[in-house]
């Protein structure tokens, strides 16, 4: 069966698996998942996994599966830095915007875990290489990341493990929210001409909300622009919350904070005067999703509250 | 000669001094508007009261906020817009005159491409758009210009303005390709540079303006010195030599001035498209082809376009702002078309 699989014909493996399934009831070797592009069958406990989505890579690692290949993080050449130590020699098969199909083929995957809303054209190509799983989750909802994590956990045959991880995150957030009174918080990226305000609906803001913060996006982020929107310097007071999380895409967090402070409009915010500005890793806070990212973000929040 | 032009022009146009004062008056009004309107909650009426020192009947906090917005946010960008507009207008006029081509644009000299490349390299080496210093872009602009100058000094090329522009265009293309390569290879740089590459007056500090004032002053002085020889050059190489000028030297000086002016504006405000092309065009349509007259009108016209565009950029997408570079093109294009359609244009 292994040799068939490595020959790139997973359906044969699946057929044999189904036969085995008929003989030994209860131990299914193939399972059917309902995805954004209909029902897809995958082998149970796939070994050769390729992730084309940061949330899928994160979930796989949380489930104890090390994918063969992944896409690079937003604004980086490799995987996000919070995951780097876990997957030092992982192959990079493109960016989230542009996938190198040939490199994916070269990995001979059993299963491809893709991003929600993968374009149909790409789906058709990828699903000829291996069963491609696209989560049907509705984007930018408070529970989106959990839904996606459970979906990928199911795809890898490790749903119980993922459920455990998710409830651990929920418990930690609940503990954190009891540690402080309900405070407001904003998440922004700084640029010289103003702030880029992150929507309430993005992953890290969902976690902030779960940890007892009122997330304040200053009513800037419009409907249909779910990620972020720029804010004029004249309106910075709108994000003058109790806490300000300042995301940077490189590791010079303190330096970015210093340069933001050199702008008088930023320096006069109350939150800056109170020294409640927390520089955070933008790869983690504005691009990543998944249980491990959740843990890392909660680490940051815990550190800030200490 | 220039008197002749003025005489002919006088029959159908206003005289140069009255046109200059009219445009300056418009500019003054636009500058006032620039202090009054913004993307924030401080409305024009309250801003006016602050300017008159008579804002009362509000909370102390609101008054403090309002004073800050007008003095620390709107005033610097208005002043920077003023300087940037003048520099771009003058640079465009100079370059078009020396290249004898109304389509010559400061961007063509490799100046904008040089600073964009320098910024991309700085970002790749680890700077971030928020920490970037004005000097990086200015150094890049000067380096780009020196390359063009080197090409222009090659034997035979210096006497032909078309080849000069060609050398600039080639260098621009080359630097543009190198920049694109960096952006393709380095995702982070690509993500950061979008904050810089469109050009904006927002969030610039008055200290940034101080940093470029020496360059501006130098550019201004040299411009005054070369205006007359440049006008002579427009009559032809031989006439200019006959009048005792050195065409080669004049051309080199003009390129140097353009590089300094455009480099300084790019450094402080990012690449702002279209101003260097549109403003001299409009100025020439109003004042005729004599560079000495055109330059005078470029002084109020450049800031007029830049600051108007900046005001609009604050108002269209409140509470955010549009990048200025987008709007200069949106405003400049119809103005240019109007000018082109309404008059017979003087040739160079």
UniProtKB/TrEMBL annotation, chain A:
<keyword id="KW-0408">Iron</keyword>
<dbReference type="Pfam" id="PF01497">
    <property type="entry name" value="Peripla_BP_2"/>
</dbReference>
<comment type="similarity">
    <text>Belongs to the bacterial solute-binding protein 8 family.</text>
</comment>
<keyword id="KW-0406">Ion transport</keyword>
<keyword id="KW-0813">Transport</keyword>
<keyword id="KW-0732">Signal</keyword>
<keyword id="KW-0410">Iron transport</keyword>
<dbReference type="InterPro" id="IPR051313">
    <property type="entry name" value="Bact_iron-sidero_bind"/>
</dbReference>
<feature type="domain" description="Fe/B12 periplasmic-binding">
    <location>
        <begin position="48"/>
        <end position="306"/>
    </location>
</feature>
<protein>
    <submittedName>
        <fullName>ABC transporter substrate-binding protein</fullName>
    </submittedName>
</protein>
<dbReference type="InterPro" id="IPR002491">
    <property type="entry name" value="ABC_transptr_periplasmic_BD"/>
</dbReference>
């Amino acid at each position: 069966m292994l040799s068939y699989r490595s020959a790139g014909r997973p359906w044969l493996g699946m057929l044999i698996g189904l036969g085995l399934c008929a003989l030994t009831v209860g131990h299914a070797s193939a399972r059917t998942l309902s995805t954004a592009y209909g029902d897809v069958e995958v082998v149970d406990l796939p070994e050769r996994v390729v992730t084309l989505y940061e949330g899928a890579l994160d979930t796989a690692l949380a489930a104890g599966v090390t994918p063969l290949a992944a896409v690079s993080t937003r604004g980086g050449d490799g995987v996000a830095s919070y995951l780097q130590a876990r997957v030092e020699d992982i192959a990079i098969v493109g960016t989230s915007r542009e996938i190198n199909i040939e490199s994916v083929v070269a990995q001979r995957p059993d299963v491809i875990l893709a991003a929600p809303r993968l374009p149909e054209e790409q789906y058709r190509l990828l699903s000829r290489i291996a069963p491609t799983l696209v989560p049907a989750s509705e984007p930018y909802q408070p529970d989106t990341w959990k839904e996606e994590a459970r979906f990928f956990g199911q795809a890898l045959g490790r749903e119980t493990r993922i459920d455990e991880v998710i409830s651990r995150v929920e418990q930690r957030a609940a503990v954190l929210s009891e540690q402080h009174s309900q405070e407001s918080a904003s998440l922004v990226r700084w640029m010289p001409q103003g702030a880029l305000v992150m929507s309430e609906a993005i992953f890290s803001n969902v976690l902030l909300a779960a940890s007892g913060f009122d997330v304040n996006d200053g009513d800037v982020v419009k409907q249909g622009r779910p990620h972020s929107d720029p804010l004029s310097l004249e309106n910075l007071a709108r994000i003058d919350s109790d806490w300000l999380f300042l995301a940077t895409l490189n590791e010079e967090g303190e330096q970015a904070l210093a340069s933001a402070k050199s702008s008088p409009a930023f320096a006069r915010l109350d939150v800056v005067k109170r020294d409640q500005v927390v520089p955070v890793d933008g790869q983690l806070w504005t691009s990543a999703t998944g249980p491990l990212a959740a843990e890392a973000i909660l680490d940051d929040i815990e550190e800030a509250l200490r | 000669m220039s008197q002749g032009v003025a005489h002919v022009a006088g029959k159908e146009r206003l005289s140069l001094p009255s046109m200059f004062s009219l445009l300056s008056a418009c500019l003054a009004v636009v500058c006032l508007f620039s202090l009054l309107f913004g993307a924030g909650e401080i409305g024009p009426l309250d801003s006016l009261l602050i300017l008159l020192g008579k804002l009362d009947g509000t909370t102390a906090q609101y008054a403090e906020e309002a004073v800050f917005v007008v003095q620390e946010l709107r005033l610097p960008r208005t002043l920077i817009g003023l300087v940037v507009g003048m520099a771009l207008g003058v640079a465009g006029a100079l370059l078009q005159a020396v290249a004898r081509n109304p389509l010559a644009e400061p961007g063509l000299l490799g100046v904008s491409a040089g600073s964009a490349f320098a910024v991309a390299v700085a970002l790749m080496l680890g700077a971030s758009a928020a920490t970037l210093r004005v000097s990086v872009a200015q150094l890049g602009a000067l380096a780009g210009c020196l390359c063009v100058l080197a090409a222009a000094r090659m034997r035979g090329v210096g006497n032909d303005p078309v080849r000069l522009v060609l050398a600039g265009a080639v260098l621009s293309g080359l630097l543009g390709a190198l920049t694109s390569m960096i952006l393709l290879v380095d995702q982070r740089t690509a993500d950061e540079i979008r904050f810089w590459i469109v050009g904006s007056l927002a969030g610039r500090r008055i200290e940034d303006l101080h940093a470029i004032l020496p360059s501006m002053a130098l550019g201004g002085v040299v411009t005054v010195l070369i205006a007359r020889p440049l006008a002579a050059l427009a009559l032809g190489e031989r006439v200019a030599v006959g009048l005792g000028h050195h065409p080669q030297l004049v051309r080199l000086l003009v390129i140097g001035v353009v590089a300094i002016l455009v480099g300084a504006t790019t450094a402080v405000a990012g690449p702002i498209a279209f101003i260097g092309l549109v403003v001299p065009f409009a100025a020439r349509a109003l004042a005729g082809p004599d560079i000495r007259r055109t330059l005078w009108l470029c002084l109020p016209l450049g800031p007029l376009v830049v600051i108007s565009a900046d005001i609009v950029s604050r108002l269209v997408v409140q509470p955010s702002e549009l990048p200025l570079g987008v709007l200069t093109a949106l405003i400049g294009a119809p103005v240019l078309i109007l000018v082109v359609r309404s008059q017979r244009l003087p040739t160079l």
